[in-house]
Amino acid sequence: MRQLLPALLSAVLLAALAMPIHAANAPSTTPEIRVGILLFDGVQIIDFAGPYEVFGAAGFGVVTVSHDAAAVTTAMGLQVVPDASFESAPPFDVLLVPGGDVGAAERDAKVIAFVQARAGSSRNVLSVCTGAFILAGAGLLDALEATTFTPRIAEFAQRYPAVRVVRDVRWSDTGKIITSAGLSSGIDAALHLVQRLRGVEQARSVALRLEYDWQPEGGFIRSLMADRYLAASGLEQAIAWPDDIAMRQQFAIGDEQHWRMRFDVTTATPADELLRRIGKGLDSLPEWTRQAGALRWSSQQEGRRVVLEVAAIPGASERAYVLELTLSVQPD
Amino acid sequence: MRQLLPALLSAVLLAALAMPIHAANAPSTTPEIRVGILLFDGVQIIDFAGPYEVFGAAGFGVVTVSHDAAAVTTAMGLQVVPDASFESAPPFDVLLVPGGDVGAAERDAKVIAFVQARAGSSRNVLSVCTGAFILAGAGLLDALEATTFTPRIAEFAQRYPAVRVVRDVRWSDTGKIITSAGLSSGIDAALHLVQRLRGVEQARSVALRLEYDWQPEGGFIRSLMADRYLAASGLEQAIAWPDDIAMRQQFAIGDEQHWRMRFDVTTATPADELLRRIGKGLDSLPEWTRQAGALRWSSQQEGRRVVLEVAAIPGASERAYVLELTLSVQPD
């Protein structure tokens, strides 16, 4: 003990490490709380890596689990080797279901059966991003408030009408089951769970250890941004797009009042004609009203007036130009 | 194209995805910018996973590299399979050096030679957390401003005197080389690099895609918290700790003005005697002055008055109690 002491105390006192000494570099062999992380081909890296880091820093044991424990390929290509298969996985207290390309996992009877069984034996279940689709597919979210990755909230509500889908939160805590919004939101939901299980001081210590700007009450809510007023419209289906069009998004940025999107467009259809087709599509949607003499439409949504403008910016040639959409939201 | 179009446009227009269509689910096979991530046993998960997610969402190609391309075991036990070995790694434009348990990597001549060679052929080099120790060990930070994981900043400055160590930033950009503070800071440093290479709109789009509360000018700076005023003292060495003491940190929390740490202590030495020993240690340090009649010391640092209080809280037995240290910082 004497030999180890200076190093340990140095690490603790001077460095002000946020975690228990026994968890400094490796998970405890007998952790009081164990987390099981579901892995599958297409899983999004940060969806499981963020919470893994949070739970590990809190001194929880973490075990990764897949169907057969063979290496999985994440959504961006990184290969990860799970610790255990569905059959060999040890008991755990928290089931973490990350998102990503969940389509196959959501339809995989073995995954659904595992999630149902382990949700039943776990104290808490936490989904990150589109992991909520897997929980919903397993029937675990019926009649509960839940959220998911912003771009897929509308689809989530449509496909799982028994779920009380919410979009104005970074995570939704229903008691046993917590669902978080997209990607980095999983870090906050994991910190929230550490707070519930260990207290706010330990959760804050973990956040400081991770040098993460934690907002315990929720923090940044991507799904409140102004593009929400486009999400439920049938705009893209209403437009007669040219058969040869290729669009590449330059950016999509904004805040709760404004949104701006630019796309590089390549098509034999000239810009004027594309704008005319988009206008015709918007004219066909009952919620949008054209402003006379302009490529500008307005819509009443949630007690606000939303204005959408469409413009084309000349490019290198008649076949390559830029399409810009802007949204502004005003109190009505 | 016609078959794919509705799905693509749905993803782009309605979901307002932040990334180019071609990068929606897999890295481009011919990315314009390729990032090489160094992996090694002991690497911290979030140090590479956060930037991997950022660069992937920006449409950059990402390749992970280790000495022999065999699976590496991260600091918390997760196993990751690199894409390439040092010999087989393709050319890349950005070298990312994550941190974690870097001791062995820092002393590994093959790692240092690889980092030196690839830093030379890369447009940018980015370290995360204690990855800065590897860059410094390779001589790449001499005469440059650099930062690292908050608890190891003092050690970093001591071991690498040729580096101009800074502690008041979330990341330090010296042009070619960027060093970031601990763990989650790597996400911000990666977004900063996307901004430099692609513009602020694309970086903002990526942050929104990740549902991350990005502060382009820097954001949360862990190293400014009040425990910095303890970091450089020789406190733990100055105290005659009991041979049998075991300390487990409950929490370490605070802000720029206050800091509070609690430890569960187990030792045959009673609390009164431990407080006396800690007091004697503090009395021996020239920068701390005892306030008469109290377990309270003050220190002048950086033009501020710092007050440290030490207290014990009775526990379950005489051999198990709680030690509390509090710091408060006042303008002087």
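Chain A has eleven helices and 17 strands.
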